[in-house]
TrEMBL record:
CDD domains assigned: AdoMet_MTases (cd02440)
Subunit structure and binding partners: Homotetramer.
Family indicated by similarity: Belongs to the class I-like SAM-binding methyltransferase superfamily. CmoB family.
SUPFAM superfamilies: S-adenosyl-L-methionine-dependent methyltransferases
One GO term of the biological process aspect: tRNA wobble uridine modification
Documented EC number(s): 2.5.1.-
Annotated coiled-coil segments of the chain: none
Record keywords, A-Z: Methyltransferase, Transferase, tRNA processing
TM region(s), chain numbering: none
Protein name, UniProt field: tRNA U34 carboxymethyltransferase
Organism phylogeny: Bacteria, Pseudomonadati, Pseudomonadota, Gammaproteobacteria, Orbales
Matching InterPro entries: CmoB, Mo5U34_MeTrfas-like, SAM-dependent_MTases_sf
General function of this protein: Catalyzes carboxymethyl transfer from carboxy-S-adenosyl-L-methionine (Cx-SAM) to 5-hydroxyuridine (ho5U) to form 5-carboxymethoxyuridine (cmo5U) at position 34 in tRNAs.
Length: 322
């Protein structure tokens, strides 16, 4: 069983306190729904990880924990085995006492693309929507955030986050809450809200934008990263059953369309700060994620197209203020 008591104590004293009116009951219901053999297996793996406090913790340039005295070979193998039992690891990488946890995505590359363009996170309270393993939460702490909260309803991702947290010395500056943004009250409390790789999975992208806005404090900043297509302000791709083998892709807007959507939802100072094609070096199969990855989802004779014939994944980062 994963305990959220520390998080409750932290937010009871800050601008998120009103969340306590609904959150404990939601998490109690979530835990009842998700207690099964897989979840018990994952939490058992966390329980068997050692309690280590790193001598060196670098969250600014990477997510790296080290000790002056290296782990024994047996201890290193045991930790690796326990972390492997939480596979597949989609987002990373992590370097933990010389164990290289090489996830499917080079999430550090995405971070490097956006961090020069956003407001300072120093002393801020931030929200990461659809946080997966929580990799970016640790980078937000490294950038100076006072509190980084990630939300994602997937049990495996919660367990991955808790495993990493334990190996980082039980750091309480970042927290993973297993809810969807549609389950959150309108807190209007976060200085910065991140939504990265989520919008195209939503049936109603405008509803998602309003939900993000409802979490931001006055004049708070939104950082939104999404798939985009080439086109004018009237265009968006609505794929068929699959896009790059993903089933739940609903709308992929052009960049001008995305700007219009943000403006229609009341955001201001909207900027596009990065546009990049996803490469087979950024998303790929590894020992920590052994099933098919991007190279398998592209047209083998033309990597400018997906296997279904749509434009290959291109991503853009937007920043906007409430």
């Amino acid at each position: 069983m994963i305990n959220f008591g520390n998080f409750y104590q932290i937010i009871a004293k800050n601008e998120l306190a009103s969340w306590l009116e609904t959150l404990p009951a939601q998490l109690s219901a979530w835990q009842k729904q998700n207690i099964d053999s897989r979840f018990n297996h994952w939490t058992n793996s966390i329980d068997h990880l050692p309690n280590i406090k790193p001598d060196v913790l670098d969250l600014l340039h990477s997510v790296t924990a080290k000790n002056h005295t290296p782990l024994s070979e047996g201890e290193s193998k045991r930790i690796t085995h326990l972390l492997m039992s939480l596979s597949p690891w989609r987002k990373g990488p992590f370097s933990l006492y010389d164990i290289a946890l090489d996830a499917e995505w080079r999430s550090d590359w995405k971070w490097q693309r956006l961090i020069p363009h956003i407001r300072s996170l120093e002393g801020k309270t931030v929200l990461d929507v659809g946080c997966n393993s929580g990799y970016h939460l640790w980078r937000m702490i490294g950038a100076g955030a006072k509190l980084a909260v990630g939300i994602d309803p997937m049990p495996l991702f919660l367990c991955q986050f808790e495993a990493i947290r334990k190996l980082l010395g039980n750091d309480q500056r970042a927290h993973f809450i297993p809810v969807g943004i549609e389950d959150m009250p309108k807190l209007n409390a976060f200085d910065t809200v991140f939504s990265m790789g989520v919008l195209y999975h939503r049936r109603s992208p405008l509803d998602h934008l309003f939900q993000l806005k409802d979490q931001l404090s006055a004049n708070g900043q939104l950082i939104l990263e999404t798939l985009v297509i080439d086109g004018d302000e009237h265009q968006a791709l609505m794929p068929g059953e699959r896009y790059a083998q993903m089933r739940n892709v609903y709308f992929i807007p052009s960049i001008p369309t995305m700007v219009n959507w943000l403006a229609k939802c009341g955001f201001k100072d909207i900027k596009v700060v990065d546009i990049s094609y996803t490469s087979v070096d950024e998303q790929r199969k590894t020992d920590w994620m052994t099933s098919d990855s991007l190279v398998d989802f592209l047209d083998p004779s033309d990597h400018r197209k997906t296997i279904e014939g749509y434009p290959a994944p291109m991503r853009a980062v937007f920043i906007a203020n409430k």
